[in-house]
Design brief:
212 residues, mainly beta, eight-stranded antiparallel beta barrel, 2 helices
Length: 212
């Protein structure tokens, strides 16, 4: 397992990229069919909120559910401040699993900081069943209609792939985020074993080193 080091340059780049690409993303006519081809059941309907960034030739679609650890507030002595964004208000980690095109079954892990504006800045990795890892950075923002403490908040944003190990060495690409927190109490149609988790769909493109 590899963990990343945050930098001020990364934080600035994520904020700029997230704002610039949000306006350029467009739905794809066959996107829903691609998402439905990934056999991983989610307790909430996120498919129609997922958009495909322009460009790319190899589709990357993934569905996952992950569980957040208790957050560490910036005022806490254990808050990892050395590489934190200057305006971070909390730090957290999450782990989960899912299924995706180009990945198959995978495990998921992330560490992230929350910053004002209900935004999340994260560094994440996926690991497939063979142990090959795909790395990414992410910027996500909570939906404007959900007040704190976000019991069932929705999130949108973007993943940017930054390489990995094995077949993901040199991999590049990006994917849009459609996610929803599932709350501490199950939704009416939610399986009882995943309260407090987050469901996510990723829609995008990936370029492998062998494609270059």
């Amino acid at each position: 397992m590899k963990y990343f080091t945050f930098s001020k340059t990364l934080v600035l780049a994520l904020l700029i990229v997230g704002r610039a690409t949000a306006q350029s993303e467009q739905p794809a006519a066959n996107l829903l069919a691609l998402i439905e081809s990934v056999e991983f059941e989610l307790p909430v309907d996120l498919e129609l909120n997922c958009v495909l960034p322009p460009g790319g030739t190899t589709p990357f679609i993934a569905k996952l559910i992950f569980k957040n650890a208790p957050p560490i507030q910036s005022s806490d002595p254990d808050f990892p401040s050395e590489n934190a964004p200057p305006n971070a208000v909390f730090f957290n980690t999450a782990t989960g699993e899912g299924v995706g095109m180009q990945l198959g079954k995978f495990s998921y892990s992330e560490k992230y900081y929350g910053v004002p504006g209900f935004r999340i800045i994260a560094e994440v990795f996926f690991a497939d069943e063979k142990g090959d890892e795909l790395y990414a950075t992410a910027l996500a923002e909570a939906g404007p209609t959900i007040p704190p403490p976000f019991p069932n908040a929705t999130f949108t944003g973007q993943f940017t792939f930054t390489g990995g190990t094995g077949r993901f060495v040199g991999a590049r690409g990006r994917a849009s985020i459609s996610a929803q927190q599932l709350g501490e109490k199950p939704l009416p149609d939610m399986p009882p074993n995943i309260p407090g988790s987050t469901a996510m769909v990723l829609c995008g493109w990936i370029e492998f080193q062998s494609d270059k």
